[in-house]
Design brief:
Helices cover 64% and strands 0% of the residues. It contains seven helices and no strands. Helix 4 crosses helix 5. The protein is elongated, with a radius of gyration of 30 Å.
């Protein structure tokens, strides 16, 4: 069972391990607050990634002014005092937005690294192009492995559930009928 904290066992070695790997990946993505953006099973709406914030215009930044007379120096100083709080607030907001943006970018990189470390290259080459985003990587992995698991099981889950419920499958009932006919 893949557990990203346990090293070699965390690798997705076969399609049969997909469910466990997907669960661990989803738990990690939820911790990074990215699952809603990665999963395309959120009601069909795609939540967009954060965009890099625009830096405040340098035109609103206070500039040092040299005054030639006393009257203009006091008005220049007053103008700087009026502009400074506005620019300072804009810069503070920008810096907060940049921190949030960089945190999301860092978390995305960490999830991509997690995929690179836990999904063998033979599977990544089929599903994860370097220029694609994490959402596309996960969607491609999910489609590949869910298709592989369904194809390999070939109805095995239904047969197992039927046996557990005491219902015979075609193979079971045909062999049972043959046994009854022989008696």
């Amino acid at each position: 069972m893949p557990n990203f904290e346990q090293g070699p066992d965390s690798k997705l070695q076969s399609p049969e391990q997909w469910r466990e790997w997907e669960y661990e990946f989803r738990c990690t993505a939820v911790c990074y607050e990215l699952w809603d953006r990665i999963s395309l099973k959120n009601g069909g709406s795609e939540i967009s990634w954060l965009e890099e914030p625009a830096r405040p215009s340098t035109e609103s930044r206070p500039r040092r002014r040299e005054a030639t007379d006393t009257g203009s120096s006091s008005s220049a100083a007053q103008g700087e005092r009026e502009e400074r709080p506005e620019f300072a607030r804009a810069m503070e907001a920008y810096e907060r937005e940049m921190e949030i943006y960089y945190e999301e970018q860092r978390n995305i990189r960490e999830l991509k690294d997690l995929i690179r470390k836990t999904v063998p290259v033979r599977y990544r080459m089929l599903t994860c192009r370097p220029e694609e985003d994490i959402r596309t990587w996960f969607a491609n992995l999910e489609a590949y492995f869910e298709g592989s698991v369904a194809g390999r099981q070939g109805g095995k889950e239904e047969k197992d559930r039927a046996r557990e419920a005491g219902i015979g499958t075609r193979d079971d009932s045909s062999s049972g009928d043959n046994d009854n006919n022989d008696k």
